Please model this.
Amino acid sequence: MLAVLGGFGAALCWATGTVAAAYASRIVAPQRVLAWVMLVGFVVVVPMLAIAGPPGHVGLENLGWLALSGAANVGGLLCVYAALRVGKISIITPITSTEGAIAAVLAVAAGERLGAPTAVLLCVMAVGVVLASRGEDRGAPGAHPRQATMFAAGAALIFGCGLYATGRASQALPLVWTLLPPRLIGVLALTLPLLVRRRLGVPRSALPYVVLSGLCEVAGFASYALGARHGIAIAAVLAAQFAAFSVVASYILFHERLRPLQLTGIATIAVAVAVLTAVRA
Model:
């Protein structure tokens, strides 16, 4: 039950953060959005670490999982924000949501058996991604560019590795310590260099969105890590349901419209993810 609740909580948080980041990414460059998101998360996480105290013996293996988790989170978010700057949320998030399937496959490869139903569903998801990214006149105003699709697909691959690494690290370390690596890497790699170059500033109109996105990233990450302690595959696939919430939000807030072929692709992804959740559960 905790794996289900943790994954579902992560989906809600990440959907909210994605919509907020979409607003911010259309005002300022993706690198600055991510720098602020990581800074906000770092400010939130550090006091929690002080209260929790040292994690005790970590070990080289766990340090490796933490480093991979942090780097993947930062790299994946950068790809997502770049996609959101030019593409449609209703297409980007379903493609990105396949991260859960990738993490589940990694969990299976690490010891669990990959059954025929899971393999078939992964193929179905791939078909859905192709359909969701097609069906538009690329030169038409407001069309979803292929570049955004490529960024979203890259984010899914990177996030999938990160979700699996987070799940592995969360099984051996206090929950709060799994929240630090992405924030620390993001601050060191993006926030501080931009600050030194005096390019960290964002317009006041974007500030509420980057703050909200940063808070949601931390909350979603914590919820997923908690759920992953009780089942990486289940928590990862349920967390990917953030796409469904994001698609609804994009229709209401951004007035995005999709063609039948794209709707078919999105529905295909959603159904495959839902069925995979049941199969893996």
